[in-house]
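Email to the structure team, subject: YbaB/EbfC DNA-binding family protein model.

Hi all, the expression group asked for a predicted structure before they design truncation constructs. Nothing fancy, just the tokens so they can compare against earlier work. One-line instruction: predict YbaB/EbfC DNA-binding family protein, return tokens.
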Amino acid sequence: MNDDWSAPTRAENNALRAQIDSMLEMFASEKSALLGMQARATELVSVWSEDGLVRASGNIAGVSEVHIEPDAFKRSTPESLGRSVTEALGELARQTARTQEEALSPISAAMPDLSDLVPGAPSIKELMAQLAPPAPPKPEPVAEAPRGLVDDEDDEDGYFRNRNYLR
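Reply from the structure team: attached below.
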């Protein structure tokens, strides 16, 4: 007995193969796009404090380097240098968050929300926006070092010897 009616035809096989090949190509393309977005979201960002004494570098995973200019201790006080470090780290956090948001926005825009799929369900996007921590406030502007603390000479020994840091 011949079951020709249940056997797939060559044309049907070719059509299924073409459909699977198309799906695999789409998957490879989307995977490549996702890897590109991930690479962009994790790019290294470097920022300087306004006074140019501190550079902070990092990405969304965290801070990778804090660089303090060699003459920072001559040009600044410990308090204002601390504010410069805080300023640079805050700006680094803002810029890395912005970079991540820009890199991942195509995915966020394309993904359906739970409320889109299930009528009456809460919006996951709104919930995530509520749970996201607010951006850190911008620090107060760094005040210039008082004139008496700026040492124009290159003699660091004299600079540190003439100040009592243990008070």
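The mean pLDDT is 79. Residues 78-110 form the longest helix (33 residues). Ping us if the truncation boundaries need rechecking.
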